[in-house]
Each structure stands twice: as structure tokens, then as C-alpha cells.
């Protein structure tokens, strides 16, 4: 078991190192000069050269990569060209919005998808299965930002019961802050609920066809008990995989929704850094997104060992 964890942790570190190099290389070949963006096209060549030296842009590629990597490992993510403040502080500040938003959205997704997926599997080819299928198809097909616009029109403009955007900050109180996140969380969570519903339905149907379910039914177990005590727990592995991937997607993919609702989250920071050609912020934010995806995959792999005893036995051998 410990050897398995050590191997996967080593693979995690190697993957992160490779991803960091790829991110730095891609940012290097992007068109545009950060110094020229900051000073404007009318700046003299001497001024541009001085700013490039100050920003370290005149150094060789590999040296700048090692300097950036070393700073990242020590928590020094550099200074933002645009804001003039440490990037680490910017990311932490924006995570106070993005992390609660993603958690809120994943609760909505799981809270809808698991019951609906199990219901559809239990009522296969019935009317309930048809309705759940319609819900999943529509929620997957409709973009999250468009759902957000519809929610603003209905609950903010028409009914006036929810804020149309902005974030008052957690210092304004728990309810005002959560109220500002409800509509964005629904807009983010609904499309993911459609995906998770279909995965849950398919996983439960696969398990319901197994021999041990027929054996449990033959021993007198009711259909409901066989479903919830045996089928659903054994169908959790693909469901847990999707939930882990969804959480990272909700953090990294919230750019459009955060812009629709004018939320000062990490997605909006990435959008602003891209528009302002702030390479330092872009590199660090993208690396954070990638590291989060890789780390969540690692956590899901470890979760498999606790969910499926067969995997634990194989790891022990």
C-alpha cells in the first residue's frame, strides 16, 4: 500500500514538473512583448530595454524558467506587471470567491445527479427515466454562461429577489456572500449535474446486471434494499472519478460565469491577465489550475483504494 502511494506521488511530481516546463514554454512563444504592453508602442527602444532588464526578460529561457520554478517551490510567485503586487496574494484573495463557488456548484451537481441517476436506473425505460434523460440532455447542451444570463433575467431583473452580480465580500456577512454565489453556482452546477446524472445511471445499470445483485434478490432482499445497499455503493468508482474531475473543471472553467456575474474570482483574474498580457499572473494561474487537476486525479486514485476492496488487495500484493 505504501509502495503504491509512493509510486503515484512520484508520478505526480514528475507530471507537475513537465507541466510547469510546458506552461513556461507556451507563454514564451505567445505573441506580444509584456514590456511594450506596459509602456505602449510609443516608448523608446532604450526605455523598453531597461524595463526588459528590470523584468528579467533579457535573460536566457532556461535561466528564467529555473528562476520561476525555484520561486514557485518557495512560495514566491513573483510580482504582477499590472497590479504591482505579489501574485501569491492575488491568487489567495481570488480563491476566497472561487473555492466557495466551486464547492457550492459541486453540491448542487451531486445533490441533483446522484438521486436522479439512481432513479433513472431503477425505472429503466420508464417515464421517470425519460424525464431524467431529458434533463441531462438539456443541461449538458445549454452553456453555463447562458444559463447565468437567464437566471439574472428571471431572478434579478424580473423578480428582483437575487443580486445580478458582484460580490460583497465575506466581511459583509455569511448570508449576503452566499446569496451572491447562488445564481453563479446554479449556472455552473447544472451542466455538470447533467453529465454526472448520465454517468450515475450507466454505472448503476451495470451493477444491477451483476450476479451478486441477483443473488441478493434471491435471498429475499427487496429491490430498494438491493439497490441502495449493494448496487449504489459498487457503482461509486466512476461517479467519484467524475466528481473529482468536475471540481477541478468548476474552478478552472468558471471564467465565463465569473465574468457574467462580475465575480472577483480566479477565473476572472486569468481573463484579466490574458487581456493585459500579464505573463507572470498567467503562468502562475495556469500552473495552479493544472496542479489542481493533477492533484485531484491523485486524490481520486487514492479514493479508489478505500472504495473498492479489490484494489486494496491488489495493492497489498
From TrEMBL:
Classification via Gene3D superfamilies: MetI-like
Subcellular compartments: Cell membrane
Sorted UniProt keywords: Cell membrane, Membrane, Transmembrane, Transmembrane helix, Transport
CDD domains recorded: TM_PBP2 (cd06261)
Transmembrane segments: 12-30, 99-122, 134-161, 173-191, 235-257, 285-307
Domain named ABC transmembrane type-1: residues: 95-304
Superkingdom: Bacteria
Record-level GO cellular component terms: plasma membrane
SUPFAM superfamilies cross-referenced by the UniProt entry: MetI-like (SSF161098)
PANTHER family cross-referenced by the UniProt entry: DIPEPTIDE TRANSPORT SYSTEM PERMEASE PROTEIN DPPB-RELATED
Protein name: ABC transporter permease
Native organism: Ectorhizobium quercum
Lineage, broadest ranks: Bacteria, Pseudomonadati, Pseudomonadota, Alphaproteobacteria, Hyphomicrobiales
Amino acid at each position: 500500500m505504501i509502495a503504491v502511494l509512493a509510486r503515484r506521488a512520484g508520478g505526480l511530481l514528475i507530471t507537475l514538473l513537465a507541466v510547469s516546463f510546458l506552461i513556461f514554454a507556451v507563454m514564451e512563444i505567445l505573441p506580444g512583448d509584456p514590456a511594450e504592453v506596459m509602456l505602449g508602442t510609443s516608448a523608446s527602444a532604450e526605455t523598453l530595454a531597461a524595463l526588459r532588464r528590470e523584468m528579467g526578460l533579457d535573460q536566457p529561457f532556461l535561466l528564467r524558467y529555473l528562476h520561476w520554478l525555484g520561486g514557485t517551490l518557495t512560495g514566491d510567485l513573483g510580482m504582477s506587471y499590472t497590479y504591482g503586487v505579489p501574485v501569491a496574494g492575488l491568487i489567495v484573495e481570488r480563491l476566497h470567491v472561487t473555492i466557495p463557488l466551486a464547492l457550492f456548484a459541486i453540491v448542487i451537481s451531486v445533490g441533483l445527479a446522484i438521486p436522479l441517476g439512481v432513479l433513472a436506473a431503477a425505472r429503466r425505460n420508464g417515464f421517470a427515466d425519460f424525464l431524467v434523460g431529458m434533463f441531462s440532455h438539456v443541461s449538458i447542451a445549454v452553456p453555463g454562461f447562458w444559463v447565468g444570463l437567464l437566471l439574472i433575467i428571471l431572478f434579478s431583473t424580473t423578480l428582483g429577489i437575487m443580486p445580478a452580480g458582484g460580490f460583497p465580500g465575506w466581511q459583509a456577512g455569511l448570508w449576503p456572500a452566499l446569496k451572491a454565489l447562488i445564481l453563479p453556482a446554479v449556472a455552473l452546477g447544472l451542466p455538470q449535474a447533467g453529465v454526472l446524472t448520465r454517468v450515475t445511471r450507466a454505472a448503476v445499470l451495470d451493477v444491477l446486471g451483476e450476479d451478486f445483485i441477483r443473488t441478493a434478490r434471491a435471498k429475499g432482499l427487496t429491490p430498494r434494499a438491493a439497490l441502495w445497499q449493494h448496487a449504489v455503493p459498487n457503482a461509486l468508482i466512476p461517479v467519484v472519478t467524475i466528481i473529482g474531475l468536475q471540481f477541478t473543471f468548476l474552478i478552472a472553467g468558471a471564467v465565463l460565469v465569473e465574468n457574467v456575474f462580475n465575480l472577483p474570482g480566479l477565473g476572472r483574474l486569468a481573463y484579466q491577465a490574458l487581456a493585459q498580457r500579464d505573463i507572470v499572473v498567467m503562468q502562475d494561474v495556469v500552473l495552479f489550475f493544472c496542479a489542481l487537476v493533477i492533484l485531484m486525479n491523485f486524490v481520486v486514485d487514492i479514493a479508489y483504494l478505500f472504495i473498492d476492496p479489490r484494489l486494496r488487495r491488489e495493492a497489498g500484493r
